[in-house]
Amino acid sequence: MSTLQLTLVILGVVIILAVVAYNQWYSLRHAPRKPRKEPVDASAAAPLERREPDLGDVQAASWAHDNPEPPLESPPAAAAAPASGLFGQGKSDSVAAAAASEDPAHATASAPYGAGQPFDSLVFSIVPLALDKPVSGDAALAALPPTRRIGKKQFLIHGLNVHTRSWEPPRAGARYSAFEAAIQLANRQGALNEIEFSEFVLKTQAFADEIGAAPDFPDMLHEVARGREVDAFAAQNDAVLNLMLSARRATWSPGYIRQCAARYGFKPSVTPGRLTLAAANPIAPPVLTLNYDPQAAMADDLDHAPIHEILFTLDVPNVDRAESAFPRLRQILEELAETMEGTITDPEGRKLPAMAMDSIAADVERLYDALEARGFPAGSPAALKLFS
């Protein structure tokens, strides 16, 4: 073999080795980031002490069984599909229409509306049901309509408990001196219409006939007009804020995202690719939701399922102002952008500088002010119904 041939062979081997080394380096550099192993907390690993249910647990379980409420349909974030703008309108955002009822962690947000108080006339069209004598909860339960919905509106009946003097959904063993029937004036699916109100009257009258009550129905046209007026206000003051964190270089694995988000209190939900940050009030909807590709979340090899972007969503009218949701979201995004080497953008991929974030913060505060001025403070029972 000549010197030239030997040189070419050596040069070829060097080139092949260089290509192999480059491919390995590139794969390592751009492979999805994996979660770091963290020390196990011995106290966290300790088995939980078993506790036998006491009388209070049994009574609470019985009450929950007797008084199921349909879950609030507060919109979480888009999961795999792109969000429809920085401030997605909850009313028109089809992706956001997926109900929070998919997440049992926040199913308790559907606790009986206004328990202890009459229905709020800002949110409901109300029919008082007068009684000549008290009616048992068993009789009221037997007379209740089989559905809690009329069209796309929630239909509720509460009774005034003779002993506690508080309003509540009918329950076995109690006695009631009066009842109220109510239907939502508006929600994110639109305003109360004539057909829905007519069905409301029929169902309420049937219930009243069964228990011997005298209903006092309001004028239909007046209530429908109120519904349209409330709906118009809600349409102008509804906002579901969507912000993205996009990977600059290396993608992220599902485990890496969960590990980073867990440091801020995010917990997995039953929906693949969705994490939630719980509110201080345990029965309130989540303060923030984090979503990434659900297909990656269900992949066989979670360490090698690449994720390029994650979506953070703040449903402004459904989160109490005291939670400081947007300042917390901004801080989380800025810190994660540095930790995860990501870029903060809107859902269309446009980078958001500090000036843009300041403008969003001002818009959120103006929205809070408008809701409070109209009697629908963000996160209140009234707001949760109107923006459901």
Describe the protein in words:
With 388 residues, the protein is an alpha+beta fold. Among the domains are: 121-237, Cell Division Protein Zipa, Chain: A (2-Layer Sandwich); 238-386, Cell Division Protein Zipa, Chain: A (2-Layer Sandwich), CATH 3.30.1400.10. 36% of the residues lie in helices and 19% in strands. It contains eleven helices and 15 strands. It has helices spanning 3-30, 42-45, 55-66, 137-143, 194-211, 220-236, 254-262, 294-297, 325-339, 354-374, 381-386, and strands at residues 87-88, 124-136, 149-150, 153-161, 167-168, 175-184, 186-187, 190-191, 213-215, 240-247, 266-268, 274-277, 288-291, 309-315, 342-345. Strands 1, 10, 11, 12, 13, 14 and 15 form a seven-stranded antiparallel sheet that branches. A hairpin with a 2-residue loop joins strand 7 (186-187) and strand 8. The chain is elongated. It starts with a helix and ends with a helix. The model is unreliable at 40-83 and 92-111 (pLDDT under 50). This is ZipA C-terminal FtsZ-binding domain-containing protein. The chain crosses the membrane at residues 6-26. One of its GO terms (biological process) is cell septum assembly. Residues 237-364 form the ZipA C-terminal FtsZ-binding domain. InterPro entries: ZipA_FtsZ-bd_C (IPR007449), ZipA_FtsZ-bd_C_sf (IPR036765).
Q: How many beta-strand elements?
A: 15
- Terminal Cα span: 82 Å
Major sheet size, sense and barrel closure: 7 strands, antiparallel
Q: Per the principal axes of the C-alpha atoms, what is the gross shape?
A: elongated
Oligomer: single chain
CATH uppermost class of the domain at 238-386: Alpha Beta
| Fold-level CATH name of the domain at 238-386 | Cell Division Protein Zipa, Chain: A
Percentage of residues assigned to helices: 25-40%
Coarse structural class: alpha+beta
Question: Residue ranges: pLDDT <50 for 5 or more in a row?
Answer: 40-83, 92-111
Question: If helices are DSSP runs of H or I spanning 4 or more residues, what is the number of helices?
Answer: 11
CATH architecture of the domain at 238-386: 2-Layer Sandwich
How big a fraction of the residues is strand? 15-25%
Q: What does the average pLDDT come to?
A: 82
